[in-house]
Amino acid sequence: MYKSWWWNRKLWKLDKRRVRVLSFIEGERLLVEEMAQRPRHANDLLQTEDKELLDGVIQHIKDIEARAKSEPDYDRLGKLMDDAETQGQYRAYFCPAGDVQREGELIISIITTEWGLPESVTNDLRKVADDLKKPEEARAALHFLFAERDSWDDYTTDYEDSMENCTILLFVLTAVLPLVSAVCFRYAFHPHCRPLLVLGVLGAGIAGSSVSIMRRMPEFEVRLSNELDAYRRKILSRMGVGIAASLIGSAFLGWGVLPVSIQGQTFTSAVSSCTTSICSGVDMLLLLGVPMLLGFSERALTTIEQRLFGGWTKSHEARQRND
Length: 323
Known about the structure:
Elements: H1 2-36, H2 48-70, H3 74-88, H4 97-114, H5 119-131, H6 138-186, H7 195-215, H8 231-255, E1 261-262, E2 265-266, H9 267-276, H10 281-296, H11 299-322
Antiparallel strand pairs: 1-2
Helix pairs in contact: 1-2, 1-3, 2-3, 4-5, 4-6, 6-7, 6-10, 7-8, 7-10, 8-9, 8-10, 8-11, 9-10
C-alpha cells in the first residue's frame, strides 16, 4: 500500500512537471514565431540563411516538445525545458533592425530596476548596451541579453523556491518541537525516561535555532557571493551551534553556574522538579524558554562561560604577566 501511494505521488509530480514544461516549450516557440513575424523594412527582410536558421530553431523546439510528451524522467524534463529556452534565445537574430536597440534596452531596464541587481552587474549590462548601437554586433548583443535575462530569471525562481522551502521547514520545526519538548518534560520524572529531559532540551534548542535562522534569511543579493548553493550547509552549521549552545548552557544553568531566578524559580529547581515529579506549567515553560533562548542567541552562553572561567582566566593572565 505504501509503495503504491509513493508510486502514484511520483507519477503525479511527473505529470505536473510535464504540463509545466510543455507550456514553457510552447511559449518559447511562440516567442520565436512572433519575432520573425514582426513588421520590417524592405531592406531588412529575412535572408535565405536567416530563414534556414528560423526553420531549424522551430524544428528543434518541435523535437524537444515531442520528447517532453513521452519523457519518463523528472530531471530530464527540466533539461528539455532548458534546451527549449536556449533555442528561444535565437530569436534575437530575427529581430527587426529598428527594434533591436529598444528590445535590448527594455531587457536591461527590467534586469537592473525590477530585479534589484547590484551595481557591478548593472554596469556590465550597460556596457553591452553600447553594442546594440552597432549594426554588425547588435543582434549578437541582443542574443547575449536574452540569455542573461533567462539566466537571472531561472536563478530568481530557484532562489525564491529554495527560500520558501527552507522557511516552511524551519517554521514547522519551530511550531512542532516545543510541543515535543513539553511532552518529554512531562514524562521525564519516570526513572526509565530520564533521557527525555535531554531530548526535550535538544528539541527546544533546535526550535530556537530555527527562529534565529528564519530571522537572518539572506537577502536576494546573496546570489552574487554563491552563498545560495551553500545555504543548506549554513543552516546545518547554525543548527549545530544552536544545539551545542542549548545543551552546554542548560548544563551550566542546571549546575548552578549562573543562578538566575524568575520570581524565585531557577533553572536548577525546574530541572529538579521535573525529574522528581510531574512537571508543573511554570517549570515546563522555564525548561522550554531557556534552551530556546540559548539556541536563538549563543551570546547567552558567552555570559555563562565568562562566569565559569572568567576568574581562572584573569588569574592565569596575571601569573603570565608576573613571570
